[in-house]
Amino acid sequence: MLLEFSVSNYLSFKAKTTLSLAATSIKEHVDSNIFSSERQNLLKGAVIYGANASGKSNFIKAMSTMKRMVLQSFDQSSADELDITPFLLSTETEKAPSSFEIIFLIDNIKYRYGFEVDDHNVHAEWLFETQKQTEKPLFIREKDGIEVMVKAYPEGKDLEERTRENALFLAVVDQFNGKIAKRIMKWFNNFITISGLSHEGYKAVTFAMLENKKTQNLLLDFYRKLDMGFDNITISKNPFDSKELPGDLPEGLLKQLITDLEGSFRIDIKTIHKKYDAKNKVVGNIEFDMRSQESSGTNKLFNISGPVFDVLNDGGALVVDELDASLHPLLTLAITRLFNSSEFNRNNAQLIFATHDTNLLCYGNYRRDQIYFIEKNQYGASEIYSLVEYKEEGKTIRKDRSFEKDYIEGRYGAIPFIGNLSNIITEWQEK
Q1: How far apart are CA 12 and CA 65, in angstroms?
Q2: What is the pLDDT at residue 243?
């Protein structure tokens, strides 16, 4: 369960910027949008709005970068760069390390884990644990070394010297089967970040769920309820055949592809549609190729449905950039409502996503503490704030306000500034 994520000095974020999924005391959608742990009430997700280039994608990339660092740190060599870009619009930060921190629950134990890193080295790292009320450090890493609290974290003992300057200590402890480290790694593995624009790579998860009898019906029932225009789906695996490669490929590339794909399988997805006669009577079925004969929206929904239901099944957090891209607003709404459904979300999965779909402000039934806005200040730095934090004339925004109308009118900020378009057109025509 995710409580909080913070980032600073990374891409367009200069100061520490935090998104919290701890529910505030407001009394909105209490029965559907929050769940209770033994410690506190948590939100089932958050929606992020902002103009193009405001920093929405950068914030989600920060989450993705932290996950990548944690899960892949041990596998890198000492010469590898870490692909970290600080906030470059200030001399104060351009050469300073970036900071990432996340707070989460595992079996009702709260952990706070974070690190400071640049493109070459880990400058700091820390892990704190709260079992009851008091937060206690498990290890603290600074530039001059790693201090392990051996009584609280014996699994980290004697591993300090085995940790490279560009590797995370947590990842090293995991490689040596540290009990707590393994649990945290498993948590990060269920912290899923995906793109709503480049979604082709996620269909493998959907394939696996459709091949599994326990999850197959769940997905097929979801597709039917959305009325996607087809009645069923068939999936077939076929061995790779080099004859299917285009004949006009350069010989060197052709040989390389044949070598790389040897022994692999091609997965074909077909959608099943009814076929009618002249009197509109059903006479049979016809198969359509998913990729070439179905819409981009259908392909996207299919591709991301696997990760969506994987998180719903196992619990965890799903973070999606541009969730609404290529989707009808009602399909976007259907996906978001899965996470507020007691039928589909029995394991308290959480959904965080960036979108331009303002309909969700009206029909999404989001609480004010679930609605976040990102905008850039006059110095080019992105800032984030929630609707429950926003003040208008010193007062908080009432829950009965029209959030969508107010947002489009610019009352909450985080929208593009568009000048007088008629002047732009007139000037262009005069040239």
Answers
A1: 14
A2: 64
Maximum CA extent, the chain: 81
Regarding beta strands 122-130 and 34-36, do their DSSP bridges make them parallel or antiparallel, or are they unpaired?
Answer: unpaired
Alpha carbon 113 to chain centroid distance?
18
CB 70 within 8 A of CB 172: no
Of 302, 296, 350, 305, nearest in space to 325 by CA? 296
Using alpha carbons, list the distances in angstroms from residue 143 to 121, 165, 395.
10, 9, 44
What's residue 110's pLDDT? Answer: 95
CA 115/CA 97 separation, integer angstroms: 9
Measured distance CA(282)–CA(279) in Å, rounded: 9
Return the H-helix or E-strand segment holding 34.
strand 34-36
What pLDDT band is residue 313 in, cutting at 50, 70 and 90? confident
Predicted local distance difference test score (pLDDT) of residue 173? 96
Q: Which of 348, 347, 352 is nearest to 336 (CA)?
A: 352
Q: Which of 139, 84, 145 is nearest to 112 (CA)?
A: 139
- pLDDT, residue 43, reads 94
Measured distance CA(274)–CA(290) in Å, rounded:
15
Token code pair at residue 103: 């707070």
Residue 245 pLDDT grade (very low, low, confident, very high; cuts 50, 70, 90): low
The answer on pLDDT for 297 being more than 50 is: yes
> Band of the pLDDT at 421, cuts 50, 70, 90?
very low
The sign of the CA dihedral 102, 388, 364, 11 is negative
Q: Is the dihedral of CA 373, 382, 68, 205 positive or negative?
A: positive
Domain ranges of the chain: 2-190+353-374, 199-314
Q: pTM of this prediction?
A: 0.85
Pull the structure tokens for residue 308. Answer: 């969506």
Buried b (16+ CB within 10 A) or exposed e, 264-287: eeeeebbbebeeeeeeeeeeeeeb
**Each residue of 339-356: pLDDT tens digit?**
988 778 889 999 999 998
- Higher-pLDDT residue of 13 and 333 is 13
Edge-first strand listing for the sheet containing 282-289: 232-239, 265-276, 282-289
Q: Is the pLDDT of residue 60 over 60?
A: yes
Closest to 206 measured CA to CA, from 335, 303, 332: 303
Cα 168 to Cα 358: distance, rounded to the nearest angstrom: 40
Report the helix count and the strand count for the chain, using DSSP H and E.
13, 20
